[in-house]
Specification:
Blueprint (H helix, E strand, L loop, with lengths): L1 E5 L2 E8 L3 E6 L13 H5 L2 E6 L16 H12 L4 E6 L1 H12 L4 E7 L10 H15 L3 H7 L15
Parallel strand pairs: 3-4, 3-5, 5-6
Antiparallel strand pairs: 1-2, 2-4
Length: about 160
């Protein structure tokens, strides 16, 4: 992957194809690889740009506060793209929407797939569910399984609970 270095670390990205630019923004439980199956078809007619959000995939954890819309703008500026088609899934859809609202002149079209809506007021049950899910993802061995990215997590030394 290519890297765009900045004061906060770096963003990793790749490019395929040639044509009008389309940017694919991954979900919050994935990285740029979630788009692997669609890139070949899109690259037949578009310049397909995929990047890893900060702290995901091959992008570095941020060394300070940042805004995902600024990261996307910085990447597009670096690549010389004034207007793009944006596609985002889940959290990536939220990033794409926020970018569109912040920089409407830079977006030709927007597709959001199951994106969380800004300023939506979640129920107490949903907040409790989110907190429990976050705690489970942060508890070993589940995170190590997800992070190692290997087909056989036991080969990476992960042990499974027996209860």
């Amino acid at each position: 992957m290519l890297m765009l270095d900045d004061d906060l670390g770096h963003l990793s990205y790749d490019i395929a194809g040639d044509g009008s630019p389309i940017v694919l923004v991954h979900a919050g439980i994935a990285d740029h690889r979630m788009w692997d199956a669609v890139v070949p078809a899109l690259a037949e007619r578009h310049t397909v740009i995929r990047y890893d959000l900060r702290g995901f995939g091959e992008s570095a954890l941020p060394s300070g506060p940042f805004r995902e819309t600024d990261d996307l703008r910085r990447l597009l500026d670096h690549l010389g793209h004034e207007r793009v088609r944006l596609v985002g899934a889940s959290w990536g859809g939220r990033v794409a929407l926020d970018f569109t609202l912040t920089h409407p002149d830079r977006v030709h079209s927007l597709a959001m797939l199951a994106a969380p809506w800004p300023r939506y007021h979640w129920s107490a049950d949903m907040i409790a569910y989110d907190e429990a899910e976050t705690a489970a993802l942060e508890a070993p061995p589940y995170v190590s399984t997800w992070i190692c990215g290997c087909a056989d997590p036991l080969a990476a030394g992960t042990t499974w609970p027996t209860d």
